Amino acid sequence: MTDMKKEKDLEGLGTSPLRNELDHSSDIAHDDVFGEITEHGPNYRNVGWMGTVVLMMKSQIGLGVLSIPGAFDTLGLIPGVICLVIIAVITTWSDYMVGIFKLKHRSVYGIDDAGYLMFGTFGRELFGFVFCLYWTFVAGSGMLGLSIALNAVSTHATCTAVYVAVAAVAGIIFASIRTLGRISWLAWIGLICILIAIFIVTVAVGVQVRPSSAPQDGTWVPDYKLVNNPSFSEAITAVSAMVFAYAGTPAFFSIVSEMRDPKYYTRSLVICQSIVTAVYISIGVVVYYFCGSYVASPALGSAGPVMKKVSYGFAIPGLLVTVMLFVHLPAKFIFIRLLRGSRHLTSNGIVHWTSWIGCTVSVGLISYIIASAIPVFDNLVSLIGALLGTFMCFQPMGCMWLYDNWGRGRYERSRRWIAMVCWSIFVIVSGTFMMVGGTYGCIVTIIESYHANGGTSAWSCADNSNSS
């Protein structure tokens, strides 16, 4: 199948012959992905550039930042910061490629459409399956994080399995908001709350005498390490946690598709990545410097029982928005795959609502099962980052650049073209190494953790905030 035919097939899934152009002067607007958008149905193209910034930041700042101090403890401060910056550079380029690819191929909605253009039907189904699996796992880790917060604030007032179920129900309800434009204001609340929570911990560990889990007798000297000597499995697991902290990349396809004006995507991206990287480095360095090996995972539990309650109290809205967003994304993906090209996609009819609610409930239930079956926060975060995060953030974007630019080498092999080919191949190879090696390391770490601690049972009532 030729590339031109693939483009036409994608366009044919929508109802519009136009190229993603919205006509705001009429009652009906057309979009290559969503078809006809009228005032009688949901407006899927209503996210401004500031809304894009906050959605991007909320897709990244949430769960991953809570494990960065622990990753620094494993790697050492200097290697940890270096690895974090390298991952930031690679993922920022990957994020940039998402916007460029969308502008060049306006009929692309998700990473599955990009996979179809590059690899045909196999690419569409593989990328689509991994996308849904990834965000469903992330939503599960969000439910687990929210259960930890509820346990911490309530001093384990009830069974942890109940808190996970409460997180799932609340996440499903809020995730059923149909458009990212309407979700963006909730993302502001969630982002502000999670930032307040982590900055409270950062200040608290800086002014306290010693971490709450450290020995309380004698003189306390922080035992942070500038350079550590971890095993391969420990090191690759720590790096995988950092990848997870930046692994919002696949969500950016959905976000740019719902922007009012996608040409402002790069502006939003630069603001997002600059703030995210600054927050990650400052939080990770300060918390690890003052806590050393006694840093908790999630990091909000590092400043003692009182500050743990305070920080988790602020974090609860942020973690709830995390669950909401990460249930919404795969549900929206499945929903569009089901109804794309039909009038039901942008209507308010029974088929539309039944399909949409069915998608959000199904994704939420699967995420709940994952959260209950793998109830160990740091291990779950690392496993998601290694197995699914790298595959969603590294390899496809290297392939996307090669897909759009490989043909230019037939006519002009400039130094820039050669450098970008080498870079794209490096991103693909490094992503593959991280995926294979990271998954192996995470599995080894999980097995060792279960042997050392006797394991944590599924659907457990035990207080999962004790280690934090």
UniProtKB/TrEMBL annotation:
Basic and acidic residues bias: start-end ranges: 1-11
Membrane topology: Multi-pass membrane protein
Secretion signal, residue range per the UniProt entry: none
Gene3D superfamilies, sorted: Amino acid/polyamine transporter I
Pfam families per the UniProt record, alphabetical: Aa_trans
UniProt GO cellular component terms: membrane
Family: Belongs to the amino acid/polyamine transporter 2 family.
Residue ranges of every copy of the Amino acid transporter transmembrane domain listed in the record: 47-443
Region (Disordered): 1-23
Organism of provenance: Penicillium bovifimosum
Molecular function terms, GO-annotated: L-amino acid transmembrane transporter activity
Subcellular location: Membrane
Protein name: Amino acid transporter transmembrane domain-containing protein
Record keywords, A-Z: Membrane, Transmembrane, Transmembrane helix
InterPro entries per record: AA_transpt_TM
TM spans (from-to): 47-68, 74-96, 126-149, 155-174, 186-207, 235-256, 268-290, 310-329, 350-374, 380-403, 423-447
